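A protein record in our archive is deliberately plain, so that people and models can read it alike. The record that follows is passed on verbatim for readers who wish to inspect the format.
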Amino acid sequence: MDVTYDATKRELATDQGTLRYHEAGDPDAPPLVLLHGSGPGVTGWRNYRGNLGHFAQTHHCFVLEFPGFGVSDAVEGHPVLTAGSSVIRFMDALGIEKAPMIGNSMGGVVGVNLAIKKPDRVEKLVTIGGVGPNVFSPSPSEGLRLLQEFTDDPSRDKLVRWLSAMVYDRKLVTEELIEERWEAAINPDAQKTAQMMYGSAAFEMQQQFMAASDTPPYWSMMHKVACPTLLTWGRDDRVSPPDMAMVPMRLIPDAELHIFPKCGHWVMIEAKAAFESAVTAFLAR
């Protein structure tokens, strides 16, 4: 099976621009939708390129590139909201009625929101960190503060500091990774999205909105997630510390939690084999 970048990349024209994605696996196998996270230089391909070959052995895999991150065409609106609507737009266009989903960080939040609002589209859900509120740890976390510093005034040094906070083993922060992320992070669409999500001004505005709003936070609605859910977490996650898992673990009725030792925010990369084993078993039940 050829799961290289060029062999798997696809484009889908929609009424809101072109969605780009990667596809692998037997078309007759059950579908699996993989949703990426956020941060400088992120793409769905970079999040899941190491896992695609594994999951394509059992599923027809789709790695969607969210609008506004420099790959799919950007659309107006907040990135988390436009990401959720793009998933439904994508599934409708390809005739995918229902599918299990894997969501890394922001992608997990997108998956949770879809499971709450459109439960008929989410068969099972796997989240990778990022879901829920900080319970004991400071908010924003160390990793998010470093992300905010980079967003306000991007530089390679700030990018390296943020990348180093993403992992337990800093050997993973190679020159190749730094260069790849830097080139993607300075894309104008990606910079605009980052400012909306993590810039100091946007963060301050979000805090004021939350204080004045009667709308409950998404995590307080997690008792409405009806599908089986696997919460995966790195024990040494400095972006979304593992105490955050306590709330979704308690609120989601059919949730289980797997914490991986010596692992940071990128569980699917840093604990690759163990993550793939746990998720494969969960999806097969």
Remarks:
- The radius of gyration is 18 Å.
